[in-house]
Amino acid sequence: MFKLIFKQYKTKSSSPDLTDVINVDDIDIKQNDPQKNTNNVQRLIISNEQNVQLIPGIKKPSDWRAYALTHHPGIIIIRNPFTERGQRYWTARCLRDYPRKPNIVNLNERLFNDAVRSDWWKQLDQCNDRDEFQRIKAAMRWTTFGYHHNWDTKLYDEQMQSPFPEDLSILCRLFANVLGYCDFKPEAAIVNYYPVGSTLSGHTDHSEPNKSAPLLSLSFGQTAIFLIGGPTLDEKPTALYLQCGDVLIMSEESRLCYHAVPRIIKTQKNWNSKLTNEDIDDADNGSNLLDMDLFQKVGDSNFWQPFSNYIYDSRININIRQVLNPGDLKLS
Ligand SMILES: O=C(O)CCC(=O)C(=O)O
Ligand SMILES: [Fe+2]
């Protein structure tokens, strides 16, 4: 069942029927519209915003809109809690910084030299040859940091670790704390890059020794159709849109359920629109929780241009996990 639905959305020959894809925005806008598929969506009240340390680029938790899917207990979607500048900052971190050494990128050593693999973004930005640009862009699919996942053995490797970025750790702990997961420790991350046309097939994430901590997933750039299914491939999955800035939490029963990205959809969002006053105030608040130099610079349209060129037809996803069980100091 899962594979059939995946295929329907992936189809290249014709545009798929999107009427069943849930857009969590619809629950607030069109409560009773029978055309909109929202009967599985429930708005969540966020009450746990005391004692959370706010960071630049994020709206106040009382302004967040969070939703649960009643047929998939443990799935929570926070609909874009980022400011426009916040979305730009994390996009730039994923493109410019996170693929750098000692983090690992998927680019093959035989096909791409060290300079490209370590400074992928710069090479792409400076590339004048259209074919070469497309070749690098299509080849770059993921980068990992924290504990590295070995894709062959499907195990995390104690010997292979790179530091987990402090800003991303603070961001993840903020989301986890507001949702009541006060002990969440971000220890491993995969950044997935999805040029339009790319997909991620159905899988479960079960390599982490800790399978009870939630998994956090952040989306930037173009919109994904995301499928969330059950514990086996037999259950029919639910399709929903993940848009720029959305935060998806897979917890409880859904933590180990099948999921996939069958399609990336190009939306009309203007990635170069002017920043609002909220964004401008945020940049001067004296915080040192983020790379404030980058946070300032993404407001400059010349600096931001190459990043907006990339997300013009691509999506970026950051997938964050806790690996160790509480009390464990090592993997094995
Ligand atoms: O891109 C996404 O939304 C999901 C990525 C994912 O499932 C993974 O990296 O394990
Ligand atoms: Fe996954």
Automatic annotation (TrEMBL):
What GO biological process terms does the UniProt entry carry, in alphabetical order?
oxidative RNA demethylation
Output the PROSITE patterns linked to this UniProt entry.
FE2OG_OXY (PS51471)
**Keyword terms:** Dioxygenase, Iron, Metal-binding, Oxidoreductase
User: Do the record's keywords include rRNA processing?
Assistant: no
Q: Which SUPFAM superfamilies match?
A: Clavaminate synthase-like (SSF51197)
**Which note does the record give on the cofactor?**
Binds 1 Fe(2+) ion per subunit.
Give the record's GO CC terms.
cytoplasm; nucleus
Q: What is this protein called?
A: DNA oxidative demethylase ALKBH1 isoform X1
Name its species: Drosophila rhopaloa (Fruit fly)
Q: What is the lineage of its organism?
A: Eukaryota, Metazoa, Ecdysozoa, Arthropoda, Hexapoda
